[in-house]
């Protein structure tokens, strides 16, 4: 059994039966104490009224926002982050003040910085240099509120360069060597499995770098039990390395969100019952 981690509902993929700002309350009603979001605005610098409405919805729900993406472009369209794109990097930088201000108001401990696709207008070396610069800027901003900047591998057809745990850890190690100690590996079990990487092996190889975890089954990116990922082994590996952080449920429910939560032990979303199970566990 995995006793130390806690599940957080990703409200950009879960509870989509509700409008965006109603999802924190829906998550709380389902038993979750913690939630995550992708960037919840259409632009890098939204109207302050929209920011206030987002913060208020979370405060009123009684949940804790434990993970927030920095601005990453149109994730459901062509983009997969902008921080490595010289022509668009300023969009990322512009979102930092907004994200950190939200983090300060809500006590957000981690921010996900999506790297960005390869583009024809810049060389890979130019993009990597831009990414290193912007991740260092983000880490310095996050340090003011004692938060961590996360980097993750992504799967799918977009030309995203970080595909394996080793790809991400190389970026993290480079940043840490340059003094950005608060940068870590977002271990997304689904994306690793989709990229033919064993998530368990990745966890065990990088115990000092795993800073946050997200799960979905593969194939399909549905809830645990709908695919081939052995969640029980992943949880055991996390327990073995002493991981005590949150585990984000970043999956697309096969039916409704409520129906997709049947694999959880009752009360698992809350802070008082933190023993998790999987349909694959003997």
Quickly describe the structure.
With 282 residues, this protein is of the alpha/beta class. Helix content is 35%, strand content 14%.
Question: Largest sheet, described in full?
Answer: 8 strands, parallel, barrel
Q: Spell out the CATH superfamily.
A: Divalent-metal-dependent TIM barrel enzymes
Kindly report the CATH topology.
TIM Barrel
With helices defined by DSSP (H or I, 4 residues minimum), what is the helix count?
9
> What is the CATH class?
Alpha Beta
Q: What structural category arises from helix and sheet content?
A: alpha/beta
Residue stretches low in confidence (pLDDT < 50, at least 5 long) are 1-5, 270-282
Which CATH architecture would you pick? Answer: Alpha-Beta Barrel
Strand order of the largest sheet: 1-2-3-4-5-6-7-8
Strand content: 5-15%
Rough shape? globular
Q: Give the number of DSSP strands.
A: 8
Helical proportion?
Answer: 25-40%
What is the ordering of alpha helices and beta strands? EHEHEHEHEHEHHEHEH
The count of domains is 1
In whole angstroms, how far apart are the ends? 11 Å
* Mean pLDDT over the residues: 92
């Amino acid at each position: 059994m995995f006793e130390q981690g806690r599940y957080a509902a990703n409200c950009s993929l879960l509870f989509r039966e509700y409008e965006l700002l109603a999802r924190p309350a829906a998550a709380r009603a389902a038993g979750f104490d913690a939630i995550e979001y992708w960037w919840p605005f259409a632009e890098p610098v939204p109207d302050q009224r929209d920011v206030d409405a987002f913060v208020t919805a979370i405060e009123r729900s009684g949940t804790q926002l434990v993970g927030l993406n920095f601005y990453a472009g149109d994730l459901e369209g062509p983009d997969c982050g902008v921080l490595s794109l010289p022509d668009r990097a300023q969009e990322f930088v512009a979102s930092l003040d907004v994200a950190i201000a939200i983090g300060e108001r809500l006590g957000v401990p981690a921010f996900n910085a999506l790297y960005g696709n390869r583009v024809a207008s810049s060389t890979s070396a130019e993009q990597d240099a831009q990414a290193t610069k912007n991740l260092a800027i983000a880490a310095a901003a996050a340090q003011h509120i004692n938060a961590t900047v996360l980097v993750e591998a992504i799967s799918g057809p977009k030309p995203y360069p970080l595909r394996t745990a080793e790809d991400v850890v190389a970026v993290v190690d480079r940043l840490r060597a340059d003094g950005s100690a608060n940068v870590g590996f977002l271990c997304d079990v689904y994306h690793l499995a989709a990229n033919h990487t064993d998530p368990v092996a990745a966890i065990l190889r990088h115990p000092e770098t795993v800073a946050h975890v997200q799960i979905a089954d593969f194939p399909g990116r549905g809830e645990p039990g709908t695919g081939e990922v052995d969640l029980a082994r992943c949880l055991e590996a996390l327990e073995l390395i002493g991981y005590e952080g949150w585990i984000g449920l970043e999956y697309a429910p096969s039916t409704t969100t409520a129906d997709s939560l049947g694999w959880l032990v009752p009360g698992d979303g809350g802070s008082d019952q933190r023993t998790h199970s999987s349909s694959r566990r003997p």
